[in-house]
Structure formats: structure tokens, C-alpha cells
Amino acid sequence: MSTETTHPSIRRSVQKQFLACEEAFDLFFGGAHNPLRHLGALGLYLLWIIVGTGLYLYAVLDTGVAQVYASIGYLSDEQWYFGGILRSLHRYASDAFMLVMALHLLREWAYGRYTGFRFYSWITGIPLIWLAFASGIGGYWIVWDQLAQFSAVATTELLDWLPIFSEPSARNFLAPDSVNDRLFTLLVFIHIGLPILLMAGLWAHVHRIAHVDHLPSGKLMRDTALALLALSLLKPALSDAPANLSTTPAETRLDWFFLFIHPLTDLSSPAIIWTLLFAATALLFALPFLPAKKSPPVPVAVVDPANCNGCTRCQVDCPYGAVIMAPHPARRGYQVAEVDADLCASCGICAGACPSSTPFRSSERLITGIDMPQLPVNALRAELEQKLGGLTGNTRIVVFGCNHGAALERIAAPDTAVMSLICTGMLPPSFVEYALRTGADGVIIANCREGGCEYRLGERWTSERLARQREPQLREKVPAERLQIAFASASDTARLHHVLIEFRARIEAESDSRKKLQPYLRRTAHHA
Amino acid sequence: MLKPAAIVGQVVLYGAFAAVIGYFATDPVYRQIPDDVALIKVSFSHLGDRECRKRSQEELDKMPRNMRAPMDCPRERSDIKVEVDLDDKNILKQVLHPTGLYKDGISTMYKRFEVKAGEYKLAVRMQDNNALEGWRFVKEEKITLKPAQVLVIDFNPDKGGLFLK
């Protein structure tokens, strides 16, 4: 079987498992605090814990070869209530960082987020894995206990397979007199320098993304810190016996998050390990270039300068920073939106943000400032009008959802119209009012689950716009009773159907004609 | 989900997260070598010898004053031959080539052997000049290796050549 067919099927199978775990976690954490939905931000938070605790450890560390072991041991033995806890937090946050980084990589791959507009973030993330491992492994050496000795010897033996040193680096750890004070000064320098490089790499990793979650929610941060703190108290990080290069430790209590490579090398050979490491790295780099099923190119957002007033809302709301503002070609002193096709995710969130996207404009052809060629707002309005016209029954409801969420066609009925969008974020809130004034008794917006939007921010922007916390806002005159926001992923179709039944029953029970909006007939309206 | 159930679920999942971190931070214990094994490390970093020739007075007189070095030495260094026997059984036989594009750099090696702890007759031989016959440096010694001990065989001309530590 070719890679073309096997790779996507493996990926989709992992994606299914991952999504099931995420949704199971939603039951307990909710979307905003679900760690699986915020792995990148959680990793960054763990890095800040590592940096914060590391600053204290650096301040008290004595880099003399005879003192380094004692100065770290002092923290655990004499100052367990502060320095010892910080040391444990430093170690466990590092382990958690590796775990979170691995899950983040797996998740992004499983969701197919390594091509197109995500190519840059994927590629810039790969070197960070090497930096994270190098930073962590070096950190273990500074303790200069038997684990440090084992790792230092094993790592240098592994490195010596590469033709990069003029003489074997393992000679630095041949005998007790091979190690001197300067080595630990160098190690500390490297252990600080590599994380600084890692931070710089992280900046590059996310700098093309707008509205980056630099930190997870306060609750997620607090609870993660509490879990690590509890672990630090129950099982403090301690040193092994001091290093002694005239003997070799027969048994070692390895930190498997970082040091698993040493047993693997013992089981195979440095040649096999380097081949595996370089092959895995090359595969990660090559993933975006692997042959994929040919699909027609997805059109990106298109700006119509005549209808763009330069309000910048599309620029602010774009999750990928694909919209920039440039001087208007025809109107001096005005700006106009421009779309960077390489960055555009074709999500349509910009069209939902555009104030010109209101369906109340009476012009026969609705042209907005920024639009999606595959589903322009004009076609959206026409489809809505056509579907509303075909609805029957006492309580007619329109459900707006997205192509990545619940299967809307399964809940369509003579009294229920369904409208599937690229993302719910592309729906201008005025469409809700328009639907209610042109025949609908109620509107349901089927958002993705919190934190589960394919385009990162669609669900968040839609919720905020409908709650009148973000422009363009839903007008206040729209009765809240006639609008229902549901959070439904692809596996939540049954739940969405249940929401629909309840919503219809509620509208029917509370049918109050005074709460209905005045009907609107576009073709007789006079405003442009 | 009801709040208490969510709280219990969160406690369980955060507990599992901490347990996974805590366990794999130190366990399972890794056994690098069996209890009754010691290590012998053979490591050199040495410039091979080179065949120098003393210039005659006549040759020196023909040379510019600032270049009258008494010895004429080629840039290239000799390969280094090393052999190690343990109880008369050869465990290492290697030729180390000089590094560098002009073969004028040091010759290096690092080898690690696992052996059972106990008494051995160790013999190390080294020749750093290809032009010479036999072995220029030889070290023979009875050694007793304790479990987990690391015995290093190194070379330093300033310390008399081959030495153990």
C-alpha cells in the first residue's frame, strides 16, 4: 500500500482517538480549561515554571566540581520547604513539558495541521524538539550525581559517533581528574543558553499566528501548578550518590522523559540511534511535502475595495494574521484590507467581521468588503431566503453550523432549515436578526465545542459577537429567547438534535408575539 | 455534568498526570551492567610520530637565515597501532589514523569493554611510528577489577607513555 493511502488513514484513526479523549476531558474540565485543547499554551506555561524555578537554582548553585553536588543537595536536605520544592518543580515541570510537547506534536499531526497556512508553524516547531531535549539532558549533568555521570558518559559516547569533535568528547569523563570546575561553568552556560534559544524558537513558532494563547486559563494554570506542587511534596526530586568516575553505576533511576535515549543506545548502537533521530526529524520536515490526495485549491478571502471602509475588524479577527491594512487605492487617507494568500486559512471569519456583510442591504447582489469566493455572503443570504421560504410548520427554526461540526443535514426537517458554513465565525450576527425577521421563529448557532474550532477562534468570536462583546455585535432588539447557542462537535449531532427539540418546545411554550421582531421584506426596503 | 462529579474527575485526572510524571521521572530502574561486571576504557589522544631528518650545515647555509630549522620534518603524522590483550586473549587491535586533511592532526580513540570482575593479566602495546618495527610502548600488569570499577588505559608521553588509572 502506498504512503498516500496509508498515512492519512493512520492519521485519521489517531485523530479519532484524540478527539474522543478531548471530548471525554470536556466532561470534567470544560473546553476553556481542558488541557488537551490548550497543549501549546500549557507547554509555554510549564516553560515559565522551569525558567522561574531555574533562576533560583542558578543563584544558589556553586559550580566548583567539589561543591556542585553539595550545593544542590543542600536544597533538598536543608531547605526542602523552599529550595527543595523549587528544585522538584523544576524537574517535574520539565518532565511535564516533554509530555505536553509530545502530545502537542501528536495532536497537530493527527489533525493534519502541518500543511498550507500551517506549514510555517510546523516547520519551526521541529527544531524546538531538539532544543528541548538538549536543554533537559544537560540539566541532569549539573547535579553531578551518579545519574549525571551515567548520562554524561552515555551522551558523549553517543555524540562521538558523529564526526564533529577533534578528539572523543567522552574523554572529558574518563576519570575523576578529567572533570574540572570550568566544565560545570560551561554546562550551566549551555543549560541557560539553550532554553533562551528555545524561547526565541517559540517566538518564531507562533509569530505568524494572531491572538496567540501565551498562557492557558487561570484555572488550568492553577490546577497544573497544584498537581506539580503536590508531586514535589510527596516525591521530592533528590540526587543520587555523588558521581565517581572510577566506578560506573550498575543501576540508575532514569528520568525516562529525557534520558530514554541511553537505554535505547545500549540496546542498539549509536549508528542506529542517530539514523533513527535524523530519519524521524527528516520525516517531520518532509510531512508537509508527502503526496496527498489531490483536492481543488481552496480560494482565499477576497477584498472588494469599493465596499471596504478600512475599519480593520477583519484584520483584528483573523486568527492567522492573513489580513493587513494598506492605503486605499482610490480614497486618499483611507485604508483597505489586503489578504496574504499564503497565510489565509479560508475560514471566512473575516467576512463575518465585516460591517458590510449585513444582509439588510437592499441591493439585489450583496457585495461585502471581504468575502469568501466559495461561499459569498450574497449566496448565504440567497440560500437563507430560499430555505426560509420553504419552511413549514408552526415553529420554524434555522440552524447555522459549520462544516467541521455536527452533521446538520441529519437534523434538517420541514420546520428546520440548516445552513452549513465554513466556520460559524463567518456568520455576521445581522444574519440572525435577518432570519428572525424574514420567517424564522428561532435561530440556533451550532458552534464547535469551546476550544475545538478548526480555525482556532471562530467559536470564540461568534460567542462574543452574539453576546455583544465584540464587533460586529448582534443588535439589542433581537430577543434572547429566540436565539440559542449550542456547542456541538462532529460527534455531537444527537446532542444538537436534543437542543433543537428543547429550543422549539421553549419557543412554543413562551410564544409571545410581542417578542417577535417586525417582519422585514428586503425588496421593499429603501436603505442601501 | 454535575459539579461534584466534575471536581472528582479533575482530581483523578490531575492525579493521574502527576502520577505519570512522578513515576517515569525515576522508574523503572535501568540496569546498565550486571552486578559482577567492570569496565575497561581504552582511550588515547596522541600525535603520531614523524620521521625527522637532521639538516646538514651545507643545507642550512643555502637556506634563508630566518628559515634555518635544524630538523626537516614532514607534515604528515604516522598511524598509531594499538593492541590490548586480556589473559593473553586479544580484545583490541586497531590502527588509528591521524586526523586532518594533511594527516597532521592527533590520532584519537575511545573504546569501552565490559568484563567480568576478577584478576586478569593485562597487556597493552602501542607503536606511534610506522617506520619502526615492533612496539615502542608496552605495558603489562596484573590487574584486579572490582564489580562496577572503571579501569582507564590512557597514554601520555609526559607520564612515561601508557598508564592505567
Description:
By secondary structure, chain A is α/β, with parallel strands linked by helices. Chain A folds into two domains: 38-286, Cytochrome Bc1 Complex, Chain C, CATH 1.20.810; 302-524, no CATH class. Chain A has helices spanning 3-29, 39-60, 68-77, 80-110, 119-142, 146-159, 181-206, 218-234, 256-259, 261-267, 270-286, 313-317, 349-353, 377-389, 430-437, 458-466, 493-509; strands at residues 251-252, 302-303, 323-327, 335-339, 370-371, 397-402, 416-421, 442-447, 483-487. In chain A, the strands form three sheets. In chain A, strands 7-6-8-9 form a four-stranded parallel sheet, with helices on both faces. In chain A, strands 2-5 form a two-stranded antiparallel ribbon. A two-stranded antiparallel sheet of chain A has the order 3-4. Chain A is elongated. The mean pLDDT of chain B is 91. The termini of chain B are far apart. Chain B folds into two domains: 1-30; 37-50 and 76-164, Immunoglobulin-like, CATH 2.60.40. In chain B, strand 5 (80-86) and strand 6 (89-96) form a beta hairpin. In chain B, 22% of the residues are buried. Chain B has 165 residues and is an alpha+beta fold. Chain B has helices spanning 3-24, 57-62, and strands spanning 30-31, 37-46, 53-54, 71-72, 80-86, 89-96, 107-116, 118-127, 137-145, 150-156, 161-164. Chain B is 17% helix and 43% strand. In chain B, the strands form three sheets. Chain B has a four-stranded mixed sheet with strand order 7-2-10-11, with no helix packed on it. In chain B, strands 6-5-8-9 form a four-stranded antiparallel sheet, with no helix packed on it. Chains A and B meet through helix 1, helix 4, helix 8, strand 1 and helix 10 of A and helix 1, strand 1, strand 2, strand 7 and strand 10 of B. Strand 1 (251-252) of chain A pairs antiparallel with strand 1 of chain B.
